[in-house]
Amino acid sequence: MTAMLLPMLLLLAAGRAEPARAIGEGGAAGWFSSDDYPKEAIVQGAEGVTAVRLTVDPNGKVSDCKVTGSSGFASLDDTTCSLFRARGNFIPAHDRRGRPTTDSTSIRIRWVLPEGSPGFNKPWREAVRARIAPDGAILSCSEERTGNPVIGSGGCAGLTASPVSRRLAFRSGAGAGPADILLVSAWNLGASTAAAGEPGRLVALSSARVRYAPGEKLCTTLREEGPPEIRLPLCTLIEVVMSPLASAGPPSGDLLDGTFTIAISELPEAS
């Protein structure tokens, strides 16, 4: 998938009279696509520019790749050189007698996250507003997101499947009318600001410090307020989401590192 042109390429002059020149459909841009973005870099929300110096042999193949300017992320730098070695195809430089010869060229690769990538460590917020009948049925539900939630509460679908909706409905007592609730999930925004500025009365809040890294799984409860039957089990929820990623292979750097909060509020009745 090259239409998105991710990563974007900036080619620098090689400084020779007859420098190595990229060939092939789309030139060097055709050797990279958004599908090549390292999974661990997507999880980290990693972006940056990797500058490399390529040695091109007389056959037009990349025989050596040296990182001359790091993106700040090993996975992006390593992938840059790996792809150039595997796919790089140049018209070789020629000496004054017209014979193919070894040459070098400098290239910068700008890694930009594909649209919609989660970026686990970037702040995000998800707000779910729902009207719940006394029997726990979801009468209406809407979602609002800022950033790209990855863990979250599951939105309206998650609320429908959760026993929390039934427990929330029963808080008003038998025979009461529908309950209007707001469920906010937030990552790296702080427990005190998760539901800040929202109407209604806070009835439950859970916050946890989370770190999933190679060989390490840590989830520590930081704050719990409200009835335990309403609070969502944050560490269990995170374990379900992170286990497939944590077992996929040894990534470079942290998979997940931050604070996760879920806050539940009862909204005032609509007039």
Describe this structure in words.
With 271 residues, the protein is α+β, with helices and mostly antiparallel strands. It contains 5 helices and 14 strands. The protein has helices at 39-44, 74-87, 155-161, 164-170, 234-246; strands at residues 8-11, 21-22, 48-56, 62-69, 90-91, 93-94, 100-101, 103-111, 124-132, 138-146, 179-187, 201-213, 216-225, 256-266. The strands form 4 sheets. Strands 10-9-11-14-12-13 form a 6-stranded antiparallel β-sheet. Strands 1-8-3-4 form a 4-stranded antiparallel β-sheet, covered by helices on one side. Strands 2-5 form a two-stranded antiparallel ribbon. The longest helix is centred in the first third of the chain and has 14 residues, at 74-87. The protein is elongated, with a radius of gyration of 26 Å. The chain starts with 7 loop residues before the first strand and ends in a 5-residue tail after the last strand.
Distance between the termini: 51 Å
SSE string, helices as H and strands as E = EEHEEHEEEEEEHHEEEHE
Radius of gyration from CA coordinates? 26 Å
The largest β sheet comes out as:
6 strands, antiparallel
Strand order of the largest sheet: 10-9-11-14-12-13
Shape: elongated
Element layout with pairings:
Blueprint: E1 8-11, E2 21-22, H1 39-44, E3 48-56, E4 62-69, H2 74-87, E5 90-91, E6 93-94, E7 100-101, E8 103-111, E9 124-132, E10 138-146, H3 155-161, H4 164-170, E11 179-187, E12 201-213, E13 216-225, H5 234-246, E14 256-266
Antiparallel strand pairs: 1-8, 2-5, 3-4, 3-8, 6-7, 9-10, 9-11, 11-14, 12-13, 12-14
